[in-house]
What we know:
21 strands; 13 helices
Amino acid sequence: MTEVDTVVLGAGAAGLFAAIEAGRRGRRVLVIDHAKAAGEKIRISGGGRCNFTNLGIRAESFLSRNPRFALSALKRYTQWDFIARVDAAGIGWHEKTLGQLFCDGSAKQIVAMLLEDLRKAGGQLWLETDLGAVTRLASGFQVETSRGPVRAASVVVATGGKSIPKMGATSYGYRVAESFGLPLVETRPALVPLTLAEQELEPLRQLAGTSVAARASCGATGFDEALLFTHRGLSGPAILQISSYWREGDALRLDLARGADAAQALRQMRQEAGRIAIRTALARLVPEKLARYLEDVSGLGGNLADQSNANLDRLAALLHGFTITPVGSEGYRTAEVTLGGVDTDALDARSLQAKSVSGLFFVGEVVDVTGWLGGYNFQWAWSSGWAAGQVA
């Protein structure tokens, strides 16, 4: 029998942060994970450079049944607080785009920083250890593990969501929540490529590998980033972002000439170089392969001088409002995060403690809080882990 003050289930970003903070309060802390190494999702994130936070953290960048739930933790431990910790560790970083911060070197530096902080805080780490049932005792909890039972006054569940199962993702955290009667918000893959039906995909296969600066919209929500055509459908940052808002049956509206006035540009080209083919004119606004495809879709022939204003307006409308309806996504296999999770109504926003179970905490991705692409989910991990660590 192992006895500690706080046991943290999951050695990812949120779990390690909660353990460090609890340890700094003098708590005897044990972190348990079934993986061979701690922080594996951190290690592979951001192309190996870890997009560890975002300068523009705000409520609108998080999806949840209660989008404002995350604000308490995010305001108490901010992106600036984490940046200061990275600076103190001597880790160089840079802003890439849209407020996204990356390590100059390797994501392994972030993992090393966290493990060193855990060591200094006196925390233990058990890896390659399977987790079993969590039960309430007269005083505290008991967690069954492959190394034997662990008893603790507090349990922090930080086992993440279902995304990237090859990294060891499971539904364990949700099962723990359900075992204590906590409600769940239905989960689904998020920040994930979208797939198309065969009849729509076939004519688009010629575009596989083509990228374009675009705006991808679903309903009233849209994102201005790169869009990538793939052999299975659509990907790229704009699609990953909108995937969190998309639902089966929804159409996407793609502005393939974002930032341009296509109608005005086509009229000017007709005036200055009317003999060029339609595809040549379109290729001045979008990649050549996409220009050829759009010419075919438009049904227009001849050169630019042959086109009426109405035809040019049709071409412009096609560029700025290309509509397509995905049939699904690539699923948890490639999803960066999981939408949904432990219902925030069951948790205290300040401490992430279950309202009905004193001493039981849920942090990070296992909670129904999902950020945009670009460091938002890591900041939620740091902030929620920090908040729980002040109490657990």
